[in-house]
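Tokens as discussed.
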């Protein structure tokens, strides 16, 4: 069945805004501008992952604004009864504080990823996020006490091989196009993978708290963004007074005033931060729309495409150099994700009659069986 114009537009919007989100974050890391005096150096790189994390949550809050505007439009302009509201705004009453713990985990994961991004390539950052499927699967077994299907285990194995390949590429790669050495890149890769463990816990917590509740995805993303922004903003206060050794001197873990000075003094830094905030809002909206209008499987494929876009962009602007090993790792990761999400091989074998499609055929990302995530969890793809 051919896509409608609207479906095509939201699919393109998801790929573009998802790519912009990672690219703009890395772009901000690479800009230099005048900030607070740092010894005898006032012009320095923008190294503020906690501020960027707060900016991401600020972007997610706009989803709550979008939800409110759409709800008001249907209720007050189109005069639609509450029972007949579209799914995008139709839901039940709930306690917003159920999003506090997921937001806390999201904030910790996002900040850890952003710290890792300052140390490695944008393409490696995006590819290594595929580790989320591995850790979510393991937590599903240990915490939710559910079993994974054979094809999901195969997918996880291929993903692990792909992750090892991408990590090996960073270990072997010279520092061309990157201001950090090999050791720094490996540290960044490790932090990104550790962040996926936190995100996996976030998804499990969301499923525990949100399963059985009919909460519109835009509202869910917005509330998680609201609590995440509040937590991140409050955290910026003690982080300013806690000092660590940086460049041979004691400096705050996160100097928010320095971040604002740099944003104001360099239009490129401001544009990069603005791109991060705006893109995450549109990316979440587009991702939710793709899931509802087309399928969650399509969303998985599009997410792989944006990883490719980020890698090609990084090569084009010479943020990194081409490596066949990284291409091989990317292919393995995409293949593993597709196998795990029941997109490759098994559907083909079923269509050819080689295996029987039993009644409990399902996959986690589509939310079609007993091992599925809650719909709200699947729709909440914070990019982060």
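Sequence:
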């Amino acid at each position: 069945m051919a896509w409608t114009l609207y479906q095509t537009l939201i699919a393109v919007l998801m790929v573009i805004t998802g790519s912009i989100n990672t690219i703009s974050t890395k772009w901000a890391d690479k800009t230099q501008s005048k900030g607070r005096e740092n010894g005898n150096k006032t012009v320095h790189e923008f190294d503020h992952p906690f501020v960027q994390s707060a900016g991401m949550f600020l972007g997610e809050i706009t989803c709550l604004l979008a939800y409110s505007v759409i709800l008001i439009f249907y209720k007050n302009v189109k005069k639609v009864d509450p029972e007949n509201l579209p799914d995008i705004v139709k839901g039940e009453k709930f306690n917003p504080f159920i999003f506090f713990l997921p937001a806390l985990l999201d904030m910790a994961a996002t900040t850890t990823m952003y710290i890792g991004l300052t140390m490695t390539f944008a393409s490696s950052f995006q590819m290594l996020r595929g580790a989320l499927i591995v850790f979510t699967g393991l937590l599903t077994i240990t915490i939710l006490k559910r079993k994974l299907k054979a094809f999901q285990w195969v997918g996880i194995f291929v993903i692990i091989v792909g992750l090892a390949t991408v990590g090996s590429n960073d270990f072997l790669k010279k520092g061309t196009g990157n201001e950090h050495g090999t050791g720094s890149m490996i540290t960044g890769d490790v932090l990104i993978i550790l962040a996926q463990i936190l995100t996996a816990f976030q998804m499990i917590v969301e499923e525990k708290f949100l399963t059985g509740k009919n909460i519109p995805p835009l509202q869910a993303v917005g509330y998680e963004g609201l609590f995440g922004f509040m937590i991140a903003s409050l955290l910026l206060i003690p982080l300013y007074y806690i000092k660590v050794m940086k460049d041979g001197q004691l400096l705050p873990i996160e100097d928010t005033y320095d971040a604002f000075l740099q944003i104001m003094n360099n239009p490129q830094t401001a544009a990069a931060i603005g791109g991060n905030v705006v893109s995450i809002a549109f990316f979440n909206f587009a991702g939710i729309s793709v899931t509802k209008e087309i399928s969650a499987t399509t969303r998985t494929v599009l997410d792989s495409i944006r990883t490719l876009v980020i890698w090609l962009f990084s090569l084009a602007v010479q943020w990194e150099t081409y490596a066949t090993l990284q291409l091989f790792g990317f292919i393995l990761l995409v293949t593993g994700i597709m196998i795990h999400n029941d997109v490759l091989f098994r559907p083909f074998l079923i269509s050819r009659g080689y295996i029987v499609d039993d009644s409990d055929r399902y996959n986690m990302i589509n939310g079609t069986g007993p091992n599925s995530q809650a719909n709200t969890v699947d729709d909440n793809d914070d990019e982060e």
